């Protein structure tokens, strides 16, 4: 037997050194369908991990490769039987996500988006073609949701203290001053040269509400080019993209659980996806309270105040970027506005978990489903 090629320290730190281990595991598991074994950690490196796990149906083994990026865990789950090609593509996809973070982040000084925010009030800034396409998508969703989704709302997050996770109650004049710099009307997109310009100082763009989904879409393109057809990828579990199906499952796609608003170990049900994406927005972890009143981090860019009346909003769409953006918009719009949107956009689906009106305990909730057409499987009560 030939000696194995040694793994460099750089490969180890980036996770590429586990590809051979994944292949060996995939070969072993592919020949042991139906056997029982414990979940086993195959390999781990700084910021990378892979684990082998058996599907609950007992006949299909999955591999799970993950890395931390964009302040959350990104992971790609695929079938062990797909072997080294899927393992290598998954690791390549995680590398791509890190590259995109270095393009999109506003928290790093030298990213492309940070440069736009520095310069675009003074001159038109040419951006990478796919970034310009993302800007156009955001513009379209902003218009189609009547302003409920807006990537220029950063000044509002700042005035409410959410950019540093130090919530504060601003005065109305502070909110009004922030609103003066919010709105797509301040962005000038020029398609011929793919440039962006701001019409006044103080305007900024931020892809926090759509960046994870966009990264998953780019990963999907890469996985397709590598010939991988069945997988689920997620960013922080709130942004999910699927291709093909879970071969060990009972459905025609992949089942994604929707979180329970009060009990972390429970879900309100599953949404079944195939070749679709799902995004979920909520303020369950980022909020503050003053005098018994709760303020969440999802701010209505039209009013300048945090939205309320929704626990979580989930959107289903063809792309993960669109699903992420729509989830944010649906949270702002609430059941009424979401119903209107879905009535005129049958290609989009939605699921809103909302506090039950008139419930003094605050524990009861209602689930509103739109355009899911049998893909929504409520949990047993």
UniProtKB/TrEMBL annotation:
<dbReference type="InterPro" id="IPR003374">
    <property type="entry name" value="ApbE-like_sf"/>
</dbReference>
<keyword id="KW-0285">Flavoprotein</keyword>
<dbReference type="GO" id="GO:0016740">
    <property type="term" value="F:transferase activity"/>
</dbReference>
<keyword id="KW-0449">Lipoprotein</keyword>
<dbReference type="InterPro" id="IPR006311">
    <property type="entry name" value="TAT_signal"/>
</dbReference>
<keyword id="KW-0460">Magnesium</keyword>
<keyword id="KW-0274">FAD</keyword>
<dbReference type="InterPro" id="IPR024932">
    <property type="entry name" value="ApbE"/>
</dbReference>
<dbReference type="GO" id="GO:0046872">
    <property type="term" value="F:metal ion binding"/>
</dbReference>
<keyword id="KW-0479">Metal-binding</keyword>
<dbReference type="Pfam" id="PF02424">
    <property type="entry name" value="ApbE"/>
</dbReference>
<protein>
    <recommendedName>
        <fullName>FAD:protein FMN transferase</fullName>
        <ecNumber>2.7.1.180</ecNumber>
    </recommendedName>
</protein>
<keyword id="KW-0808">Transferase</keyword>
């Amino acid at each position: 037997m030939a000696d194995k090629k040694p793994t460099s320290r750089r490969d180890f730190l980036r996770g590429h050194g586990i590809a051979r281990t994944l292949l060996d595991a995939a070969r072993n598991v592919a020949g042991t369908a139906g056997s029982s074994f414990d979940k086993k950690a195959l390999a781990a490196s700084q910021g990378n991990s892979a684990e082998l796990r058996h599907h609950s149906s007992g006949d299909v083994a999955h591999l799970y490769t993950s890395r931390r990026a964009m302040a959350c865990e990104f992971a790609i789950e695929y079938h062990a039987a797909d072997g080294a090609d899927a393992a290598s593509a998954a690791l390549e996809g995680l590398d791509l996500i890190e590259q995109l973070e270095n393009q999109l982040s506003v928290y790093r000084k030298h990213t492309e988006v940070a440069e736009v925010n520095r310069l675009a009030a003074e001159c038109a800034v040419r951006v990478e073609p796919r970034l310009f396409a993302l800007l156009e998508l955001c513009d379209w969703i902003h218009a189609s949701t009547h302003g409920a989704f807006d990537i220029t709302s950063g000044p509002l997050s700042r005035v409410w203290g959410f950019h540093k996770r130090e919530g504060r109650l601003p005065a109305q004049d502070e909110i009004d001053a922030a609103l003066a710099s919010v709105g797509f009307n301040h962005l000038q997109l020029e398609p011929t040269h793919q440039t962006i310009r701001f019409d006044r100082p103080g305007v900024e763009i931020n892809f926090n509400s759509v960046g994870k989904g966009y990264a998953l879409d780019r990963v999907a393109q890469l996985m397709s080019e590598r010939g991988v057809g069945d997988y689920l990828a997620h960013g922080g579990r709130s942004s999910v993209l699927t291709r093909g199906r879970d071969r060990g499952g009972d459905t025609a796609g992949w089942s994604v659980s929707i979180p329970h608003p009060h009990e972390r170990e429970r879900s309100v049900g599953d949404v079944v996806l195939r070749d679709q994406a799902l995004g979920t927005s909520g303020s369950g972890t980022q909020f503050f309270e003053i005098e018994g009143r709760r303020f969440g981090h999802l701010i209505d860019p039209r009013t300048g105040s945090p939205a309320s009346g929704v626990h979580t909003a989930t959107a289903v769409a063809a792309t993960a970027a669109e699903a992420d953006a729509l989830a944010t918009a649906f949270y702002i719009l609430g059941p009424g506005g979401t119903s209107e949107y879905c009535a005129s956009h049958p290609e989009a689906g939605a699921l809103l978990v909302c506090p039950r009106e008139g419930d003094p305990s605050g524990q009861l909730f209602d689930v509103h489903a739109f355009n899911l057409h049998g893909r929504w499987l409520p949990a047993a009560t």
